[in-house]
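Cross-posted from the bioinformatics board.
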Amino acid sequence: MAYKIISSQCTACSACEPECPNVAIYEKDGTFVINPKKCTECIGYFDDAQCVAVCPVDNTCVIDTSYPRYQAA
Amino acid sequence: MLEQNQTAPLEEVMQQIAEHKGCGTSSEGGKASCGSSSAPEDMAPEVWEKVKNHPCYSEEAHHHYARMHVAVAPACNIQCNYCNRKYDCANESRPGVVSEKLTPEQASKKVLAVASTIPQMTVLGIAGPGDPLANPEKTFKTFELIYKAAPDIKLCLSTNGLALPDHVETIKSFNVDHVTITINMVDPEVGQHIYPWIFWKHKRVTGIEAARILTERQMLGLEMLTAAGILCKVNSVMIPGINDKHLVEVNRAVKSRGAFLHNIMPLISAPEHGTVFGLNGQRGPTAQELKALQDSCEGEMNMMRHCRQCRADAVGLLGEDRSAEFTTEKIMEMDVQYDIEKRRAYQEIVEQDRQEKVAAKNAELLELEEEYSEVKILVAVATKGSGRINEHFGHAQEFQIYEVGTGGSKFVGHRRVDLYCQGGYGEEDTLPTVIRAINDCVAVFVAKIGGCPKDELKAAGIDPVDKYAHEFIEQSAVRYFKEYLGRIKSGEIVHVDRGDADIRQGAYIAA
Ligand code: SF4
Ligand code: SF4
């Protein structure tokens, strides 16, 4: 699985963007989005998903269940 | 615009000052008041030299010089219960305002455009939304661009302090004039009720632990700034029942670590802000509570009293926001010619006017020298800036409050009010709001006032005074006070302490 950003809640504060170890987050049409191909759920880098930990709006960075669980290589 | 400014009479131009609606200081103890050109007693001369023309640090300078903010740093690394990060400003008077986010390149162009149009614009601040040091690349890129193009503009930044120790060196390298740290507590027990979490070393830390890390970093950052010779001011938000009493301790802690000013601001809180405090009914302090706390800290340190808690991207005068003239679109089209010489010439005129004002007040004070009386009164003043009584009662969006006694006059705060006269004349239910906001004052000085509000003010025991229209504020306040004493002596009036006033608060900078 990857994380996704609920765009209607995103304030576009940009806090998550530089925290992502995989540079998976970018700005698009006024909010921030996660590239699911790059997101590793922070596995291999940090104990907590960085975007979740830093986001000021709770439940905005959430698991995207349409993707399979990320497998560390 | 520039040419107009050069030829227009000073008074007129003064009204165009983008008088920053932010923060500042009054001088201490009622001895040297704001008009003083000498340093307050407990301030080192070299510090005074740096701040005396700074609109944020001297109420008197505030009438002549202006500052602006740019919002380049939207990300934050902590969460505060008085902040809703959906909006840039939790306590914005119009809830839901979001300031325009700028890139460093846009921001520096905007600053140069404003500075070329408004010669009083001498200070550039990066504050909220967000924490400038949680966005170090954007913040320092902006500083770098401005520093290169306009070395005469002073740079400042506001921070919550969490990341401060990591950046003191860079701050020093850009010659940053001063740093403001928002410090609401020095005790994690208190802090846990203000900060739900911080983002620290790749983790979200909550509770007492979060507050403990934050206060350690703030104190360390403050000490490092002091050691590096960078001026540091401390902002605190006064939250009744949570940190109000504790702020006296904060005051001591920051003073002992070298902060040169402490600005205690009232919490502004309403459910529609969507903040934790807004939603749980946490009230802000009354004007009287705020003043009492500031008074109790004053012996310890210079207090700032004229913080208007502006919105972060304001470019405007009192009661007027000129930011619409400087939208990104317009700025990008502008051909900005930055001319240091023109700015300098302009500022010389301002300097003269300033000297005159100080002289006028001192002359008035001389006559009071022989007198001594316990009586102190508050007066409210409708002003657009430049230290004069030059605003119509019905147009005032805020009143400046001066305390006057035989020791002299001093600026003690602002009261923001709704526009009483919005376009038309005298909306009925707003006048009581104004009266509530200033009902601890004996008089209100205005440039002009209608008959109807005049009667209602009188009925509320507030003397509406328009005879000092366009005169200097402090000189007039002292003159009025002399008359007031005279009237007490002759038995015409009896001096009574006036009650508490409600404040309608305005916007506030999240920092
Ligand atoms: S979970 Fe981690 S890797 Fe995925 S987007 Fe968030 S910060 Fe990046
Ligand atoms: S931290 Fe949250 S609110 Fe801010 S840009 Fe990222 S997703 Fe949006």
